[in-house]
Amino acid sequence: MDQKGMEVVGEVTAVGPGLTGRKVGDIVAYAGDRMGSYAEEQILPADKVVPVPPSVDPIIAASIMLKGMTAQYLVRRCFKVEPGHTVLVHAAAGGTGSLLCQWANALGATVIGTVSTKEKAAQAKEDGCHHVIIYTEEDFVSRVNEMTSGKGVEVVYDSVGKNTFEGSLACLKPRGYMVSFGQSSGTPDPVPLSALAPKSLFLTRPSMMQYTSTRDELLETAGEVFANVASGVLRVRVNHKYPLSEASQAHADLENRRTTGSIVLIP
């Protein structure tokens, strides 16, 4: 489960009347709207859960559902990363950023990541970044310009928001894609359409809910995540496990920056 109670893995203990395709004992996962995953038992709509294959450890599944499905729709559907592309990932050592780097690298892209410290730079390299920019020490726009010989990148994946938004636009090549999927530094300032015109840029503010709105989309998204976990393409660092009864301690440690990687609560 993540810190907002939006993802969970568990064993089916009962199914409703007339339901097919689910049976007691199945391991299933859920990610999305807050349905209260800080619980020992839950009643969930059958069409909102997905099967977890035996090849994926349930604890790994619990730690990767939301971030992994976010990475899937971003690199496979929102903008389709292909061999030869150059992509820029902000917060490359963060939970979703790490998976974006791993997945884009596996798809054959050249990956540029931005991070805040040397320690995070080392992790980003491990996760498939070909070039890492420590944005606290150097200007990421000029570095991207150098790395791409002035051409720019096909796509920027920006979860930082206000502090990086304008620079991200400047890093794009003509007809490039600005994918703003988070705002950890605050909401970006409003963008006049004229700001996109000089390079005919695309701008989107996607949400996973709209990319997993049908049952088929949900199964395909989760299925790709689990397949890439099983094959080793995606790795997630589960560095902290707490009993569910210590959820408040997990939150305190998270807020005081005493944790790295994923945190999983275990009933």
Automatic annotation (TrEMBL):
Keywords: NADP, Oxidoreductase. GO terms for cellular component: cytosol. Gene3D superfamilies: Medium-chain alcohol dehydrogenases, catalytic domain, NAD(P)-binding Rossmann-like Domain. Residues 5-265 form the Enoyl reductase (ER) domain. GO terms for molecular function: mRNA 3'-UTR AU-rich region binding; NADPH binding; quinone reductase (NADPH) activity. InterPro entries: ADH-like_C, ADH-like_N, ER, GroES-like_sf, NAD(P)-bd_dom_sf, QOR-like. This is Probable quinone oxidoreductase. It comes from Gossypium raimondii (Peruvian cotton).
